[in-house]
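Below: protein 1.
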Amino acid sequence: MNKKMAIYASVLGGIGGATLAAVVIFVLNSGILNTRYFNVGQVSNQSVLDTTEPIRLSVKNLTVTQINNKTVYIQIILKLHNPTPATAMLEAIQYNVLIDTKRIASGEIGGKLGGFVDSQAQIYPVISNGTIVLKDAKLVQRNMLADNSWNKITGNKAIYEIIGTYSYRQQTSGLQASEADRDFKLKFP
């Protein structure tokens, strides 16, 4: 067999295989093979869909280190727990840190995927019933903060409010995945 015939045979074989796969998928999805013809139980993932809980976000710690009279270093440690039976993929957390209703810092952990070709380097998998810890740090300038608020921060007496949105994908059934963007509002301590 020469090279041309071998190429034609492999192309035709690939087309035939793809056609066979399409027919099988059609037959399985069309309901032709249904339980009234065959005594086969049908497995449903509906129970998984009905019991899917959102992944839970909490603040594990927030520390402040004073650099000088006008600058502090804030490190925030967030904890994410996945109570579901499937792995969730955290894409991004966007947050703002407030004290006395004034924003003192904002940040982003990860990055929201834009499409099929985006890098998945900043995706964080959270396995079933698993927990991950994520850290971020920011320099905060005193700028226009009132003396009272600045003294709370530097004296470690502040009550911080952390607000924002987290985005994740979760497998629901088969190859299907659901996306969720959830707002959050947390206090620390």
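Below: protein 2.
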Amino acid sequence: MRIALLTSFFTFAFAMLFLALVQNYAQAGDTSLPTLVQTQPKAPVRIVAFVDTSVRESTADYSVLPNFWFQHSSPEFDFDTDTSFQKYLNSDHPFDDSTYTPTDLLPIDSNFTANNSKAFKLRAEAGTQFADMARHFRNAFSGDRLYISSAYRSSGLQWYLIKQWCAMIKCAAIGTSEHQAWLAVDIKVITKWGRWYSLDAAYPNKYSDRLKANAAEYGFHNTYQKGIEVDGKIIEWRHRRYLWTELAKILADNNQTFAEYYNTINN
């Protein structure tokens, strides 16, 4: 008897539930089951570097374009002016203004880094060149990407890092940091499978080899690669500084660091 009553109760409950669902569809003016709307995904956008930084062209991810870089007619390198892309920085040659802040700081606009590039800032020309380098890097390795660890750091943040833990042989003194110049990035590599790689030349890999071979094409140079005695800082393989393509290629062709070149022409 109890089993029969329970069976009747559940039958009635399911019937009422079904009726309520039918009424809801009817009131909505649509008695058919809802269907998923399929939309075509938007093609990702990338920025291509041109000499005129105000001109930018969006192209689909799958398009392969030739490499462009900023070409400076009859370039003259300026190692002294704070606003120069070649401003040489060390403890004996700081910014004239220790709180120097350029006026052309922009988020790095790239769809080809492993993390959100727009969370990091560089000067406009340097950021555009880095975005182009990241695009070619991603294409060369079928989806493996550069990962940005750090870019612009204010004098205040540099002071905080030094105060907390960072020794002077690793972190530059206030007013001497290439990060404060808005021209330096710290990078590593993450593959499309999620594996991390450093750029340590002591343990070379295809990623470090590629950057060593062609980062200069985009104006970037590893400033700290020969140690304290040569560069004034410990070796930092992740560090890349924008100097202009013309100067970066001179350094690469002669296997010189920025410090070696600067000291050579000033002695």
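The chain has one domain: 45-265.
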